[in-house]
Amino acid sequence: MKKTVIGLFLLLATGSLFGQNPHIEILTSDTKTSLRGLSVVNENIIWVSGSNGTVGKSANGGKNWKWVVVKGFENKEFRDIEGFDGNSAIIMSSGKEPAYILKTTDGGDSWRVVYENKTPGMFLDAMDFASSLYGMVIGDPINGKVFIARTTDGGNTWKPDQQPPATDSGEAFFAASGTNLRLFANKHFFMVSGGTRSRLISSTGVQDIPFIEGKETTGANSIDIFDDGIPKAPGQRMVIVGGDFNNFSSSEKNCIYTTNGGKTWKVPETPPHGYRSCVEYLSKKDIIACGINGVDYSDDAGRNWQWISKEGFHVCRIARIGPAIFLAGENGKVAKVYW
Fold this sequence. Notes:
This protein has 339 residues and is an all-beta fold. It has a single domain (6-338), classed as Methylamine Dehydrogenase, Chain H (7 Propeller), CATH 2.130.10. The protein is 3% helix and 42% strand. The strands form eight sheets. A four-stranded antiparallel beta sheet has the order 1-29-28-27, with no helix packed on it. A four-stranded antiparallel beta sheet has the order 2-3-4-5, with no helix packed on it. The longest helix has 9 residues, at 6-14. The protein starts with 5 loop residues before the first helix and ends with a strand.
């Protein structure tokens, strides 16, 4: 669901949020799971998901965690999660078919399958919700077209699109952080692809972007859109990150941003310091990105990036309600960003 930025604007106006250099504090680690799914409901309720069928939840801002392995799905990778509150959440499995989407309404104690797809080659990559009812999931191309399914009832049922966008040969999506898809309530969506082609695919068309491409390991991994409150024209400010995860220290064509809806794209003067799997707007000017070799932060809308931590993470998310910012990665590692 879309981030609530009112609280951020109030804090920024008073200068009480980003007055100092940010730093990372590890909250928990040493759990045998690679975390790529992260959903921050508010400053207290955090959901994470990852490998070995693992889901974690905190109800007190990361101080304590409840970890569960979903019965019957011990070998699945839950690479994206959407938490609605402390009781309800949706998880998406990535990997060899069948593809699954599951839902809990009792805080993670039990899960039920709400979608299953046994199509050969089915591989789900990302999920996003524009509201508590309306959501979308995307997957690698099937028969040359993006797999898209939508829900209008909070994830209880899913319906595949009948005419999804076409893709080029060698073009696919990365299940890296669940953030290569962003969905809006007016049915606008933006997604970024990678591989031999890296492009921006949206509800209004497909666009080439000046991004690294050419290998199975290259391309865009994450996109974020600054929600400026214009309901009919989202996406004026966008930022895209990625790179080559087999060459994670390279900054070659790993970040671009736009302030005019993609009419023109800009390359940072100082880019993020390597491959980045996730990016998140914190405000109109403040952006955070993370990857295998650390975390970068920009306070000038993406023009220059500072390497604020060399701790590796897969995903970073700001709370839907409030300014809390969390990260998650390998070995069950969860951290919080402090100013």
